[in-house]
Amino acid sequence: MFRNLTPVVKNLLLINIAMFVVASYLMPQLERVFALYFVQSSLFLPTQFLTYMFMHANGWHLFSNMFGLFVFGPLLEQFLGPKKLLILWMVCGIGSGLLYSGYNAFKINQLDNKIEAFYENPSPEKFNDFVSENRHLFKPGVFDFIDEYSRNPENPSLIQRAKENFMGIRDFQINIPMVGASGALFGILIAFGMFFPNTELLLLFPPMPVKAKYLILFYGLYTIYNVIINNPTDNVAHFAHLSGLVIGAGLVYYWKKGRNNFY
């Protein structure tokens, strides 16, 4: 089975696995340099748009991405050639990082508007609304503070503490790193579905055959659903996955011009 691995797929697997071992057990400080941070973070480096693709949060994260590459990558590399497969992987991965950063900028801008509104006219109601929207980021003790602030809405020290909470959450949000090759992998998935739409794949759970186009459609719809609901407790960068799908589809559409027969 491993003898069927194509060169680019094999090298990507080895690099990602090696980086995970080094970052997890030998040099954990690499995450601060290689993970992708928001552009306003003090930890941000432009090179992170490339390096974040080779970092993974845990073993399951690594396995799921590399298993997808292992399954879908070799046939694509045989069909497209090593150069185009590598272009597909890199363009989708880097592009996903760029689009996700733009998405983050939009979210941070919304947060900044709320902070500005509170600074201009501080009130317990605005702070309570903010806590309700970001409940997962606060410790239970914040509700005691809300009660105290509600009873003393003009207290300068309480207003200052509320402002510090706002800025603390903002600082936390801009310093959340993104890691993983999921954006690049989703580019591989959409490419496989577009080039080989009627290829039947055997699922593990449940054990049944399904055509590639239906499997990829399911992944796409599931990703869109998660982007729309925007669960604040979900630490998966679904927008980056969606970005990989869109970029990959655009690249494949360009490559497919003038070619009509795929299997």
Walkthrough of the structure:
It comes from Belliella baltica (strain DSM 15883 / CIP 108006 / LMG 21964 / BA134). The protein is mainly alpha-helical and 263 residues long. The chain has 2 domains: 2-104 and 178-255, Up-down Bundle (Rhomboid-like fold), CATH 1.20.1540.10; 109-174, no CATH class. The protein is built from 11 helices and 2 strands, in the order H-H-H-H-H-H-H-H-H-E-E-H-H. The chain has helices at 7-26, 31-34, 48-51, 59-80, 82-120, 124-133, 142-151, 156-174, 182-195, 212-229, 238-255; strands at residues 200-202, 209-211. Strands 1-2 form a two-stranded antiparallel ribbon. Strand 1 (200-202) and strand 2 form a beta hairpin. Helix 4 packs parallel to helix 9, helix 6 runs antiparallel to helix 7 (142-151) and helix 9 runs parallel beside helix 11 (238-255).
